[in-house]
Amino acid sequence: MTLDHTPWPPEVAARYRAAGHWRGQTFGAWLTALAEAHATRTAVVGERDGVTSRWDYAELDRRAHRIAAGLADAGIRAGERVVVQLPNVPEFVPALFGLWRAGAWPVFALPAHRHTELRHFAEQSEAAVILTVDTHERHDHAALAHAVAAEVPSVRQVHVVGSPEFDDLAATTARELPDPDPSGVAFLQLSGGSTGLPKLIPRTHDDYLYSVRESARICALRPDSVYLAALPAAHNYPLSSPGILGALHVGAKVVLCPRPDADTAFRLIEREGVTITGVVPPLAATWVQAAARTEHDLSTLDVLLVGGAKCGRELAERIGPALGVRLQQVFGMAEGLVCYTRLDDPDELVLGTQGRPISPDDEVRVVDPDDPAAASDDLVQAGETGALLTRGPYTIRGYYRAAEHNAHAFTPDGFYRTGDLVRRGPTGHLEVVGRAKEQINRGGEKVAAEEVEDHLMAHPDVLDAAVVAVPDAYLGERTCAYVVPVAGAAPTAPALRRFVRERGVAAFKVPDLVQVVAAFPVTGVGKTSKRELRAALAALVREA
Amino acid sequence: MSAPEPDGALTGDRLRADIAEVLGCAPAEVTPDADLLDLGLDSVRTMALVERWRAAGAPAVEFADLAEEPRLDRWTRLVGGADA
């Protein structure tokens, strides 16, 4: 089975259209309308190689048209996949709309991804093109893209933003291209999965734009708002919650932050008059600390979204006073469902929950989390902890070309098994209390235990490995790998970490702690069940 | 080992102790030329060290400079100002 996209049942789709959720508009047509409404308002501000670009909506629209025409002239056809690995440079935004207008499907890689991951995305999506930058944070991304292109037969082209070749492509005379099907796939996001390799998430124009419009409304974005994209722009969160797209929806200004440390972000907040941004809890903590001594004026900042990982109560309480902002918690997933605390919610909900769903048509079930392999899906009592299942007008019904995985990631009636453990209060607000899936949430970056174990077990000195989350004062949690060496071998922790890094994986997947042990320090665990082993090790870590 | 410096001075030994503390390792593991990434350093810990060292009298220390080359010998020059 190689289904690209599992459609919603026709009667459900009809209901979402009748409700006005799905409006039959593509991203390209949406930008055309925005450019007409807000032509001379500033749309995008960003820096690349020390040069700042500042484009109004008309200019963004023109650039997107030219890039679309250039991609079409280069032979990129509608429906072809393009792996996009761009950091927070201004070109990210017109390139994205250029791809959409050409009908191509962006596959959103992160700047942190390396050879192993990029190759996987290109292979799994059968990508025709990789779009990247020259270098970023001392890494040669162009070389990386060319190396992957040489290994993956489907990849015909590499385009490098900032190169003379890309400048030519982006100077192509604009022309109208056929508008793609708004109910079809617009792009592929990455799952923060729990299996060996990330799955691809097909999102449609219709469903994503619904979440964008509602996010902009819930976060009270206005034409005079200024949104700072502090996290890597390709993440679902800075892209759409309310993110870059939410800001564009209201004619606001988007500022791309090249890196999220307090110095860089505070400088841009002051210079551009930023009113709203979104960060992960560890960053919020460093900003709170830095705000006490900063020379920058942060007085324009009104709303700070915190999400990606659970924001602890203590940190939540410090954010407002320290930064002079209103806190808005967000809990979302690239597969769909996004929850926000509302700006007029009482403090108790803002500080103590991760919000409630965007849409009245988001369906949420909190079910018995035990026995996940053969889930009974019995609802828990109101207010009890359970596993979160969801379906709705912007939550996928299946991953891209993953029939086998889909069979257990979704219920027969189309609910997505999020793998999160939550409690739902009487107002519908969710409190995230943990995970049923075997994943480590490393300060918002999701790390699948199995993926890291596979890398460790590729080392000739490693007999077996199990990766679990350990609590961490800085990141909330981080990874700890228990490694059993083969007889006679004595690999060291730094050597194993370097080995994983040099296999070409994102730095956030390199195990933070490595314990080399003669045998896993647990008893009574079935030798064949990695799941039980990880659970026992995690319990051991918690008791330590 | 050199003699202990007065409290608060940002000497190489003080930096080493701070790094070891945030990494949760022994100071002896933080050798001058060890790649701190191999010892478990991440960007949030680096940001925390920036704040700590600014408060301790190195106001010019920048995240970007530390992230450029995460090694104790390099950081000692940067934070000490000799190489700034």
Could you explain the architecture of this structure?
The complex is a heterodimer of chains A (about 550) and B (about 80). Chain A has 18 helices and 26 strands. With about 550 residues, chain A is an alpha/beta fold. Among the domains of chain A are: about 25-40 and about 55-180, 3-Layer(aba) Sandwich (Rossmann fold); about 440-544, 2-Layer Sandwich (GMP Synthetase, Chain A, domain 3), CATH 3.30.300. In chain A, strands 2-1-12-11-13-14-15-16-17 form a 9-stranded mixed β-sheet, with helices on both faces. Chain A is globular, with a radius of gyration of 23 Å. The mean pLDDT of chain A is about 95. Chain B has one domain (about 10-80): Non-ribosomal Peptide Synthetase Peptidyl Carrier Protein, Chain A (Orthogonal Bundle). Chain B has helices spanning about 10-25, 45-55, 65-70, 70-80.
As for the CATH topology of chain B, it is Non-ribosomal Peptide Synthetase Peptidyl Carrier Protein, Chain A
Distance, first to last CA of chain A: 46 Å
Average pLDDT taken over every residue of chain B: 86
Q: Structural class of the secondary elements of chain B? A: mainly alpha
Shape of chain A: globular
Radius of gyration of chain A: 23 Å
Which blocks of ≥5 consecutive residues of chain B have pLDDT under 50?
A: 1-6
Q: Helix content range of the residues of chain B, please? A: 40-55%
Share of residues in strands of chain B: under 5%
Secondary structure tally, helices of chain A: 18
Number of domain modules of chain B = 1
Salient structural properties:
heterodimer, A: 544 residues, alpha/beta, Rossmann fold, GMP Synthetase, Chain A, domain 3, nine-stranded mixed sheet, four-stranded parallel sheet, 18 helices, 25% strand, globular, B: 84 residues, mainly alpha, Non-ribosomal Peptide Synthetase Peptidyl Carrier Protein, Chain A, 4 helices, disordered N terminus
